Amino acid sequence: MSHTDYRPYKGIPPIAGVCCVQDAMKTGLSVSECVRRLKRYHYAFKRLHQIFTARITAEPIYELKSAFSLHAYLCAEHASVLRKRVAEMREPPLGLDAVPDANLEIFFDEILSAPTTEELVAGIYEKAIPALQEAMQRHLAETNQLVDHPSARLCRFALLELADVRAFGDATLKGTLIEAPAREKMSGWLKLLDQALTAAGTLDGTKATGAPPVVAPKPATPTVAATPRMHSAKPYVFDGTPRRDERFPDPYNMGVHAEQFLYDEKYPAQAKTLMMYYKRLREIDVPEMMASIITETKGKPWPYYNDMSRQLWDEARHAMMGEVGFINIGVDWRKVMINFTWSYCLNTQLKPIERHAVLYFIEQGLMPKTGKRFEWEVASKSNNPLAALFQDYDWADEVLHARIGRDWYVSDFKDPKEATKYGDECWSRVMVGWKEWRDQGLTQHRNWWPDVYKEACEKWGMQPDPAILAYNTTYETTRADLKDLSVSG
């Protein structure tokens, strides 16, 4: 019986619905060629993860910090899946740390080293993401969907999320971020990126070899870069100093002590919910700090970077919860002085392992009943269902983060007690220069709370409580060293 005579039994799709019989008979990619391509996709996702993560801290634009946090996590997830798939395909040793092509290395090095936000965004979303999409779409078109179903499946899932990433990038590129003069100035560099991809035979290397081989190819020889370097002529140096855009006019401001307000029993839950939105939005400093840990910590197993990237993205989500909370009330969040003093102090004063120690120490303080459970209970009493929902998920995320801390931080110590003690010691060494920042004219530590509270009361249709309106307790008037405060959580 030929495939043209084949009829499905009782109308049931054959081949488990994966493809038709005719497609299942086509000669597609050999195992060797499939693995060669998968390694290139893995390299691309890993490099994109590196780029997104490394550029979070110093990127001033809040929306890009948030998007880079998400896109870094997605890239880490897909890199993990690809690693697993390659390991299934007769590939010991895996060779996943090898650079597949010198020109491809330059391509990603150039994007990592892009000196401006405009070039960085164009390099990622105009060049790298489309090239990766094209490569994985070609894989789906050329492989045998039956025999290579596991690879086809991971390509399909990756392409779903790459489409989301591409949509964000396309919208950003069509906006006002890149004006005509900036576009003209970077035109030569964008051509260099195209040159690098061409020299690499496109991202998957297929244009260099012609038609995909169906038998095992000869062992690959190291490629010689045919692409000159421009921005990456000097090795990239991570910038750990956090930066904010113009909507954050006073990032050194420590004029409002949110934690003290939240734990004061005389204040009502409704007003505390407003202060919790401030705490959530302020959490954008956690990705700024965690990005420095991930970028500057070398030699860890890949699951470390995957898990840490998940936590980084969660913290960015928490900040956006605060943003949405203010918008839901109708309060202009730009009137809230969202400071970066926590990430600034940790990134400039501590080593990566010490920053991780502080992160773990603070997270442990969020687990008791006076931590995340308390915030959820407050939100639940506030008659604000959205606030309760946000705190419900915030609490769940922090439980996961505590597990990540146990897996990747505590495991390096004799026991959890020793790990917590070290975190306490590191936190105690952090010098929070609220007085110096004021004396240097960087901030007046203005108490912005009355204006924000009054605006919220107008939206709630109620008169401001004079006692709440008068709240004016700064960090300066309490614990200057902040040692016992969860300023990021």
Structure write-up:
The protein folds into two domains: 17-213, Up-down Bundle (Ferritin), CATH 1.20.1260.10; 258-469, Ferritin (Up-down Bundle), CATH 1.20.1260. The radius of gyration is 26 Å and the shape is globular. It contains 21 helices and no strands. It has 489 residues and is mainly α. Helix content is 60%, strand content 0%.
Order of helices and strands: HHHHHHHHHHHHHHHHHHHHH
For the record, give the distance between the C-alpha atoms at the N and C termini, rounded to a whole number. Answer: 67 Å
> What integer value in Å does the Rg equal?
26 Å
Question: What's the main sheet like?
Answer: none
Helix segment count? 21
CATH class of the largest domain: Mainly Alpha
Chain-averaged pLDDT: 92
Structural class by secondary-structure content: mainly alpha
CATH topology of the largest domain: Ferritin
List how many beta strands DSSP finds.
0
Q: Characteristics of this structure?
A:
489 residues; mainly alpha; Ferritin; 21 helices; globular; disordered C terminus
Strands, helices and their partners?
Blueprint: H1 21-24, H2 31-54, H3 62-87, H4 102-112, H5 117-142, H6 149-174, H7 180-185, H8 187-199, H9 206-209, H10 258-262, H11 269-282, H12 285-296, H13 302-329, H14 341-349, H15 352-366, H16 372-381, H17 385-408, H18 416-428, H19 434-439, H20 449-460, H21 466-469
Helix pairs in contact: 2-3, 2-5, 3-6, 3-13, 4-5, 4-8, 5-6, 5-8, 11-13, 11-16, 12-13, 12-14, 12-15, 13-17, 15-17, 15-18, 16-17
